[in-house]
Amino acid sequence: MLTEIPRILLVDDDGNHVALVRRAFDQRPSSARLSVASDLRGAREQIAVAAPDLVIADLRLPDGRGSELLPSKGDSATFPIIILTGFGDEQMAVEAMKAGALDYVVKSAETFGDMPHIAERALREWGHIEKRRKAEVQAQIHLAELAHVSRLSTMGEIVSELAHEINQPLYAITNFAAASTHRLEHSPHGSDEELLGWVRRISEQAKRAGDVIRSLSRFIRKTESDRSPHDVNTIIRDVIRLVEVEATNHQVTIDLQLADGLPPVTVDRVQIDQVVVNLVRNAIDAMSKVDVEHRRLIICTSLDSVRGRRDDRGGDDGAKMITVSVTDRGKGIDLVEKDRMFDAYFTTKDDSIGMGLTISRSIIKAHQGHLWARSEGRGGTTFLFSLPLVRGDDEP
Q1: CATH number (domain holding residue 50)
Q2: How many CB atoms lie within 10 A of CB 310?
Q3: In this structure, is residue 351 part of a structural domain?
Q4: How many domains does the chain have?
Q5: Domain that holds residue 72
Q6: Any idea which of 90-99, 157-166, 245-254 has the lowest mean pLDDT?
Q7: DSSP 159-199
Q8: In what order do the strands lie in the sheet with 370-375?
Q9: Prediction pTM value
Q10: Helix H or strand E segment including 272
Q11: Contacts of residue 316, Cβ cutoff 8 Å, sequence gap at least 6
């Protein structure tokens, strides 16, 4: 049952026909709001301003056929179309139905007078079609999600196997790097400080790779993470050292605005590293198409109280949180992206599977924190996450 008065567009250049149809609708003023166009051009102009709920179009018009208002092949119709045809044109009307018209009506004084009932029946049928179409789309989305969940489960098994296999060469790399460092430090000819620095970084990154693999394996298995007190500012400075080459290559300036004297938070260091790296790399990528002078990435930290804040973080009233914000000056996010950006497999990048923000939000949520985003008025986006202090962490 229709709850709003439908908007119907009649496309016909015959004034007598228009008068008969208008009279029929005037006798039932609550059945529809009727507007009229005399040719395709006028019809398209009205449709561009506001799409009607139903179009009733004469097959033969001064500038073409009413069937030309049907969507192009492969496109979905946004409103139903009924074709008006004279005697002898039924075959053309049938072809129009094959192309997507909902129905056709042979013109006569009787059908013109019955047009409100014809329109009501067409709108009711269109409602059923749309309902089935939406159900089919939802079913396809559900099947796709089930397939993704299955692949994610398989990925968990693969990660567990890879963790075992990859850790062996990483362990060997770490040992060789340690041996090289020892040899350079105790060389009778003196050490090469630059080479020594490189070897130390090899050792650090090999260890970090092993930590990431073990952390990811724990995360997928949903086992307890390895948590201990850490300084958020230190985490951020260490992450910046990891991505500074990428930022330089993209001509992005990083501005750290870190609050002094922040209390430590109890976190899984590697997992929080993953979150910060993901947000920073997303910010760098978001600015790849803006002018170089605007490529500025700002990272801030602060100690906040949830009390009185009007955002979507939630949490206990008055609870103390460490908040980290990562702001870019890219093109910003539209409403669709804002609604779906944390959904699994949603991505606007060609080379991404769309799991970075989903995993990041899951990590922060597992730490009893919150991750959210907001658009900036001057353009760009800010991603923020908060981590709660363990009771007593903010006390002297």
Answers
A1: 3.40.50.2300
A2: 5
A3: yes
A4: 2
A5: 7-113
A6: 157-166
A7: HHHHHHHHHHHHHHHHHHHHHHHHHHHT-TT---HHHHHHH
A8: 253-257, 296-305, 320-327, 381-388, 370-375
A9: 0.46
A10: helix 269-286
A11: 306
